[in-house]
Amino acid sequence: MRELRDDPPAAEVLAGQHDARLAPPRPEATIQQSAREAQWWRIDAAAPVAVDTSPKLVLRSPFLYRVEAWVPGADAPVRHALYGEHADDRYSARSLVIDLPAGIPAGEPVWLRIEHRSTMLTAVSVETLDEIHRQDLAHVAWRSLVLTSLAVLVILALAFWGGTGERSYGYFGAMLLCAIGYLAAIGGDLRWLPWADAVFGTSAQTNRLFGCSGVVFSNLFQRSYLDLPRKLPWFDRLLAVGTGIAAFAAVCTLFGDWPVFSMAGNFALLYSAAVLLVASAVLAFDGDRVARVVLVSWLSLMVFSFLAALQMMGLWSGPAWLGQGLAGSFVLASLLLAIGLLDKLLQLRRDRDHASRQAVIDPVTKAMNRQGIEERLYREVEDARERAAPLSIAFVDVDRFKEINDCHGHSVGDQCLRIVSWRLRNQLRRNEAIGRYGGDEFLVVLPGRRQDEALSIAERMRISVNCRPLSTADLELVATLSIGVAELEPGESMASLFERADTALYASKSAGRDRASAAAPQEGLWTV
């Protein structure tokens, strides 16, 4: 591979008039035309290429290059491109395939005139038709897997974002959309679209816009996911620099195809990758679970992105499979991050459920508080009405509890309430509930129980408390209960049910305490 960094007339080049101006042979069979819009390349075979194997000249990952090829045995040049009228749909978009009808005889070169400037590295090889078909099948399968996987993850991310309002899911989905656009633009996967040539095939602006925007959304996602503003504010400020450079390059790309903005975008990528790698490593070393997910999932993508950026900046020449490795690392990183995001979603749900449970739990007795037991009773009343099933409640009051608090202090009183609560719960079935309704009052909800059954349960609860003293650290205190029981009647409101149970409770107190009383039927029901 030797390049002529000029664009003289074809007749002069083919006649050998500019051979003396050819650059020295390249160490590898690659093309990278980042300095000029049009120039020539001379390809000499190390050994003659026979025609009996149906040889083809293959240019991998050509992206925007538009090629005119003068090959041995052909009377006129053939034109090839990934997009536009010279695209060859007999082969996959992984390469341009140039026929060699006469092979490459000894001493005869292949001349390529290539238009367009690109930082992409294009590998050149001679392959048989069978090899090309096998590699095309593998390429199509691989690209289908990559793009389909990314598309599914985009849908999931956006669905989670819409369902939870969590911004990190939105940034994650936007990042994946940019990744799909970037991979499809440089890989030619969308060249079958009628407008693909105008959007993707005329300049590098579109893929540069996808790339820079992807860096912006990636940084925003990682910032939110790692919670850098709170955990590592200094790294957050460093990352903001890379995000700003990438955003500036993306905006400027809309107004022109200048290579300086490609350099800025690649610098932002390398800089941001380094900051995020160090930040996630610091957090992971401190035991941060999210940072470990990022470090494991993002490491391969960071490495491939770093190498690709170095290659595009002309600082390194990588292998031909680097582009496919970059695409695969996108899928691997995105899949692992999606699992991490799902785990975070589950943790958020667990935290929310825990907070919800704590909101209805009495801190002293660990039974439900007034709000929790009233909500439970409301649900049970609605269910009883729908199924025409019985439902009873019991109001429980600890007799002379104020004397315990006054004589022994509130800490002893709280311990007594905990013991009473435990003993009451031991008399209930799993579907029955108890809550602390007031200072020393408990409300017990008994779904499926008639009043006579509820009264029997109330008796068991009363006996469970007065049968033995309440043992605290230094004291043994005797306690008794007064209980009022009522059954929900057809058409009765919750307020009426409460009032009848409360009336029965005070009837127990008036009769001398340490007893359970059943409520009388309500004559004039409060209906709802």
Would you write up a description of this structure?
The protein is an alpha+beta fold and 528 residues long. It is 53% helix and 15% strand. The protein is built from 15 helices and 16 strands. It has helices at 10-14, 129-164, 167-187, 196-200, 205-226, 228-231, 233-253, 259-285, 289-312, 322-359, 370-387, 401-408, 410-425, 451-466, 494-510, and strands spanning 2-4, 30-31, 38-43, 55-60, 66-70, 78-81, 95-99, 110-115, 122-128, 391-398, 433-436, 441-447, 470-471, 476-477, 481-487, 515-518. Strands 1-3-8-5-6 form a five-stranded antiparallel β-sheet, with no helix packed on it. The chain has a five-stranded mixed β-sheet with strand order 11-12-10-15-16, sandwiched between helices. A hairpin with a 4-residue loop joins strand 13 and strand 14 (476-477). The model is unreliable at 524-528 (pLDDT under 50).
Q: Could you report the average pLDDT, rounded to the nearest whole number? A: 87
What's the total count of β strands?
16
Oligomer: single chain
- Sequence of strands across the biggest β-sheet: 1-3-8-5-6
Provide the structure class. alpha+beta
Please tally the helical runs, counting DSSP H or I stretches of 4 or more residues: 15
